[in-house]
Amino acid sequence: MHTVLGTVSAPTVVLATGTPQLRRGLYWMKVEAQRSYAVALRPPEGAEDTGMFLSAGSPSHSVRWHRGTLLVGGEGHGVGRQDEGADPYGELERWAQERWPGAEPTHRWSAQDYAPFSGIPFVGWMPRTRRRVYFATGYEKWGMTGAVAAALLLEADLAGRREGWQRVLGMRPTLPQTVGVGLGASAAVFAWYARGYAEAVTRAVRARRGNEDARLLPTATIASEHGSTEVCLVCPHAGAIVRWNAAESTWDCPAHGSRFEATGRLIEGPAIADLRTRGRATRTGLGRVRETGVTSSSPAS
Q1: Measured between alpha carbons, how far is residue 54 from residues 61, 105, 177 in Å?
Q2: What is the pLDDT of residues 233-246, one digit of tens each?
Q3: Domain 174-301 carries which CATH code?
Q4: Among residues 134, 230, 244, 254, which one has the fewest Cβ atoms lying within 10 Å of its Cβ?
């Protein structure tokens, strides 16, 4: 197996990335990449710090307590498919403070999950690898349990044994409802491709009319006191146009879920390369992110 750090040789390899980066099996087309957010708050004095709750409304929010700290999660969306100007952390904090007046936010974080169209995680050997490459993906936010079950299955498979319960997790069924969900998801992906390039063409036409630099492929300029970097917004994985995630200061791909730092450096795949760049800039002290027709603030990272 070849990596950016060198070549790894082994009779059997377990690929334990969030989504398989190998193109064999096209599993990045069989799962939907999702992001979700969480905040921690210091509760007001006298608040009852017990219980776990899930809101009945939409969007869904989850609540639990940990050592006197209030934890609230939710505001999830498909990667790169958030509404313009979305503020998931702010929404979670406002929602919590409406129910616990006086609660003070202390921490924010997010996570990425992959949802298989069948509802069953993909676990086992990867096609066309002669059973030398194994993988697991698609826990759909149940990684605490799903990953453990997948590890047990892979260990048993590698040792040449299989328990009865493991047959279900190792199945890769193609059911009518699975096909329907998959077709719908594929249509959504193609729609994001069309939207990204349509917006790029529109901006290029407007720039040409205004006698400005008109490029068909959209770029963004990262500027700071350390210099500037021009980032190409075409995802190196499959060519979709990445979108700016203001909540996390990242470029997110709405097609298959790859994410990149503001400067174009890869965060997570299925992409295996950074966004193309020109110029130089450090990873700290970022000033502003400017896209053709769009200007967004970017805090230091």
Answers
A1: 6, 20, 27
A2: 999 999 999 999 99
A3: 2.102.10
A4: 230
